[in-house]
Each structure stands twice: as C-alpha cells, then as structure tokens.
Design goal:
Blueprint: H1 27-40, H2 44-47, H3 50-54, E1 60-65, H4 71-79, E2 83-88, H5 92-102, E3 117-120, H6 124-130, E4 136-142, H7 160-169, E5 170-180, H8 183-194, E6 199-205, H9 217-224, E7 230-236
Parallel strand pairs: 1-2, 1-4, 2-3, 4-5
Antiparallel strand pairs: 5-7, 6-7
Amino acid sequence: MTADRPPLAEGVPDRLYGRRRGHPLRPRQQRLLDVTLPRLRLSPDQARDPLSAFGMPGAKLWLEVGFGGGEHALEQVAAHPEVAYIASEVFENGLCSLLTRLVAEGEEGTGALPANLRLWPTDARHLVQALPEGCLDRLMLMFPDPWPKSRHAKRRFVHPELLTLVARALRPGGEWRIASDDPTYQAWVEEVFAGTSLFTQAERHAAERPAGWPGTRYEAKARREGRQPIWWIFRKV
C-alpha cells in the first residue's frame, strides 16, 4: 500500500478504476505529467487540511471525482474563483487533456496555473477518507464509468459502502451532484440512494441539463448515440 493510498475503511472495495493509461503518451504529455502535475498535485498530508494547500482559509471546498477530459472542472474553476476546487482523475490521458488546456507547450514548468485548482491523480475514495469531517460543500460525479457487469458493481463510486465516507466528508446540507447517461447506472443510483437515510434527493432532471452544470464530451456523445442523461442533486441530511 503506497503512502498516498492508505487502507480504506472496512467494507469499502479497494478498487475503483481499470486501466490508468490508454494510448502511449507523447513527449509533451509526459512532460505535463512529470513537470506540470506536481505543481498542482494535492499531497496526502495536504488532504488532511485541504484549504491550507490553496491558501484560501474559509473558502468553500468542491471535489470532482473522475473529471475525464477536464471540461467540466475547468469551467467550474473559471466560473468560481472563490471556491477551492479539487479535481480527481486516475486516467493519465485525462490528466494530460486537462493540463494541456492550462499551459502552453514549453511552459510546463513556468506557465501560470489557477490558484483555486488542485489535482488528485489517484483513487478518489482514498481522498474522501482522508479529508476532514464536514469539509466539503459539494462533491460532483459526472458521467462515471458504469461498470455494467454485476461482478464489477463494487467498482462504482456510487456504492452503499461508500455513502458513509462521503457523508462524513460533506457538511450538513452539502451537495452530491451526479450525472449519468447509462440506464444501468441510473437505476443503480436510484436504488442505492433509496436505501439510505444519509442523503435526501433535492433535484432530479431528466430532460435538459440544469443551469450551472457545464457540459462534457460524455454528455455530447450520449446525445449523439441516443442516450438520455439524468442529473441529480442529493443533500446530506
């Protein structure tokens, strides 16, 4: 077990993702991971007092789990400079996609970076466990991998065993925002949250994306392929 992946609480499956890398990385992408990522990386020690990593005492703290290509995260960071924003992603090509948008080639080590953004490039569940109790104002899970096979259901971030960890990290009334276009995952979200008293459903949108939710490439792909996304807001009781 590595230093940035302490053991998870008993009962929480210790695996969220599949592969960490897609196609081979180009030299520019490797420089982004080697030089730019460390400039934004939230360390395990900083996770215990996250606002100190931003130098933003008293700020609201948001966490996005699995940011994919980074479109949603970067729009939120730009639109809410007063919010301390942690974006988590294990997939190296997704990390490179976000970092490419932040710094020009040749400026990987010197280009200006958003002061209100930090990255967590490993399993987000370890971060949620490490965060102080009640520190999060919002957690966002946008179009997660559905893991459609029953034997892989334990890898879903929405999981009965994980609800307690998320509820501990969220402040009372804090939001857990979820979006999915996959019918299996949509049914799973409804089932899991119906079985808990830790959260109450505040909003559910099944026609159009609600205001304040930036679009993603995954939503666009779903619409092209005829799948209907659903957006939820659950609030910690």
